[in-house]
Amino acid sequence: VQLAESGGGLVQPGGSLRLSCAASGFTFSTYAMGWARQVPGKQQEWVSAIYSNNNTYYRDFVKGRFTISRDNAKNTVYLQMNSLKPDDTGVYYCLADSGSPNRLYQYEYWGQGTQVTVST
Q1: Is-contact 118 86, C-beta < 8 A?
Q2: With contact defined as beta carbons under 8 Å apart, do 79 and 35 qualify?
Q3: Would strands 114-118 and 9-11 be described as parallel, antiparallel, or unpaired?
Q4: In the 3-class helix/strand/coil scheme, how is the chain assigned residue by residue?
Q5: Are 1 and 109 in contact (CB under 8 A)?
Q6: Per residue in 78-109, pLDDT tens?
Q7: Percent of the chain having pLDDT more than 90?
Q8: Which of 17, 9, 62, 72 lies closest to 36 in space, CA to CA?
Q9: Which tens digits make up the pLDDT trace of 57-74?
Q10: CA-CA distance, 71 to 90, in Å (whole number)?
Q11: Which of 16, 56, 88, 110 has the fewest Cβ atoms nearer than 10 Å?
C-alpha cells in the first residue's frame, strides 16, 4: 500500500491550497479515505474523511473552509483548503482504511505527509 501526498507549500493567510493523495496497492473505491494533520506543539488530529459511499465528514475547525473529494478512476483523494489561517500550518497526512473508522488510530494506512505553511 502506498499513499503519496502532494500539493503542500507556503501560502498567505486567506489563500488556498489543494492537497492530493495518490493511492495504490488496494481497492481504492472500497476504502474510507481521510486527512489528518500535525500542527506544531500539538498531537496529530483528524481533519476530514470521505467514505466509499461518498459521505463526507469534517472537524468543526475546518467546516466551511475545507472540502474533501475523491476520484475513484484516478485512485486519488483531494483536500481543497480555502481561507487558510496560520493555525492551519502543519504536516498533512493522507489516511486509508477498509472499514468505517471513527477514530484517528483506527486508520490502517498513513502517507508520509506534506507540509502546509500559512504565513505572510
Answers
A1: yes
A2: yes
A3: parallel
A4: CEEEEECCEEECCCCCEEEEEEEECCCHHHCEEEEEEECCCCCCEEEEEECCCCCEEECHHHCCCEEEEEECCCCEEEEEECCCCHHHCEEEEEEEECCCCCCHHHCCEECCCEEEEECC
A5: yes
A6: 999 999 999 999 999 999 999 888 888 899 99
A7: 92
A8: 62
A9: 999 999 999 999 999 999
A10: 25
A11: 16
Grid cell at residue 32: 474510507
Angle 24-28-30 from CA coordinates, rounded to 5°: 155
Residues in the chain: 120
Q: How far apart are CA 28 and CA 77, in angstroms?
A: 10
